Amino acid sequence: MRVVLLGTGDSPGTPVIGCHCRTCEDARKMGWQRRRFSVMVQNAGKTLLIDTSPDMREQLLRMDIDRVDAVIWTHCHYDHFIGFGDFYRVQSNVNVFTLPEIHESIAYFMKFLKYKPIEVESYNTFNLFGMDITLFDVNHPPVKSVGVKIECDGYKIVVSGDTNKNVPNKSLAEMMDADLFIVEALAPEGRFKKHMNANEALSLAKRINAKKVVLTHIGHFFPPHHIAIKKYPLGMDFQTFSFGEASLDEFF
Ligand SMILES: [Zn+2]
Ligand SMILES: [Zn+2]
Ligand SMILES: [Zn+2]
Question: Which residues have beta carbons under 5 A from ligand 2 (an ion)?
Fold first, then answer.
């Protein structure tokens, strides 16, 4: 199984259009960026996307992906689904898994596309391409939002989805002992109704006893990447984690 962070930015990405803060300027100067949120999971020769970001086309071209076999949407915010429109005239009838109410909120925007909405319930495990997948409720008011647990070959990968720190206990139980925890952190500090700061994300990681943690959904509120990475386990676009015969290794 291979897990790739296709985009580690928050909704406007980094650099932010029109922003000349230190981080956005560093990104422009050094040529790095944070695309919008999507995680690619590959197993048994199949490709699953968790969320379809507005940068989808570039992300799939960059990874040389000819075909996507399934999609999971975590919630109805545009930075998590709107890139699905890039499937227009490229691929139809893609299976898309999420809760009924999330399908309902997104369907209006995807009327021009043919896809297969598949309704699943939180905490009901389903199997896709040899992976056991469970969606669990998180807390991202006012919209319904889920995180994703993937179990495969004895490894457990957990993606927090967009959430504040008040994750329901039932979901904490699903997240326990993750081998890799991909967790959102909008900013190094500050209090947010919908999101976590880095300390909240790291203490959640501790609470669930995660073995490896990587922060994502990162805003330009963090210092430039090469500085912030010394203090926080920040993800980077296209960072890849491999699980399988060999022990957990990581490369760029
Ligand atoms: Zn988001
Ligand atoms: Zn900025
Ligand atoms: Zn959101």
Answer: 16, 19, 21, 24, 220
CA–centroid distance, 50 to ligand 3, in Å, is 13
Q: What are phi and psi of 88, to 5 degrees?
A: -55, 125
CB 75 within 8 A of CB 99: no
pLDDT surpassing 90 at residue 249: no
In the chain, where the domains are located: 2-251
Contact 239, 4 (CB under 8 A): yes
Pick the CATH number of 2-251 from 3.20.20.70, 3.30.70.3040, 2.60.40.2550, 3.60.15.10: 3.60.15.10
Whose atoms come closest to the Cα of 216: which ligand?
A: 1
- Please list the residues that pair with 41 across neighbouring strands: 3, 48
Calculate how far, in angstroms, residue 78's C-alpha sits from the geometric centre of ligand 1. 8
Q: What is the pLDDT of residue 245?
A: 62
Q: How far apart are the first and last CA of the chain?
A: 16
Q: How far is the CA of 246 from the centre of ligand 3 (A)?
A: 35
How confident is residue 247, by pLDDT bands cut at 50, 70 and 90? Answer: very low
